[in-house]
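Sample entry as discussed:
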Amino acid sequence: MRVFSGVRPTGDIHIGNYLGAIKNWIKLQEKADCVFSIVDWHAITTPYEPKNLQKYIQELAVTYLAAGLNPKKCIFFVQSHVKEHAELAWILGTVTPVGELFRMTQYKEKSQDLKESPNAGLLNYPVLMAADILLYQSEVVPVGKDQAQHVEITREMARRFNNKFGKTFKIPKTLLPKLGAKIASLKNPKKKMSKTGDPQACIGLFDTEKEIREKIMKAVTDPGKNIKYDLTKKPGISNLLIIYSVFSEKPIKQIEKKFEKKGYAEFKKSLASLLIEKLEIFRKTKKELKSSQINKILQDGAKRAEKIAKLTMKKVKKNTGL
């Protein structure tokens, strides 16, 4: 079973990214043929600082490796190091109706946030993502809920291409985590946790112990004192319970019982201590790994990825008459 997934290097990685995608990759590499990518071309579709891009790529690589990603068990590389991604994206764009791209939820949301007119790259984001997936004949794509729509349009592109040019691509399936697929902001539990905006609204994987404690203690809760999971009536505490559950690997019911007669403050102190303990590996690995080691791993991964990509493109070109 071939698996593909990628994450944009757009700043500090937070626990929502980890729980929504990265944590699941570690398990998948043990039982599947995995291709994991740092998708830097996707990162430049929204405003960014060029001077920070390589730093963010390095930090994301550290995150993967600290989480337990094993380059010997999977292919791990930077998207722009394999030019076939862009080549296939162009070809897929010729069979994708513009109307479908304008209807994408992420395009609507991000284009509204931009002060200037949205760029064509943002509109074509789903086409490039489809190329990322289809280039490796991927069968499964582990993503968070916010990316599920992109996998669905990828499936449609693959079907349309196969119908027009003959069977070329496998039709991938979405794999969503059962819990923790969407971690909410610590400041506004009705919005997802984001790397941009208020830094107090998310827990970064490289945050210090002091930062973690302060952010958790200031996290929004709800009226009352009961530690009870109810996304409708108690979205704040429910979000914190999800985080606690996934990091402790204990069911929410068990956590509710543990804090049955205790208040929010005690629950938050316990959650902060849990996160400090679990995230220590990320801070430690960041200090130990050298840039030269990371670059070697990514270069080796790109060579392995390129071999598969070239085989797919050979088939694509033959079927399209190029």
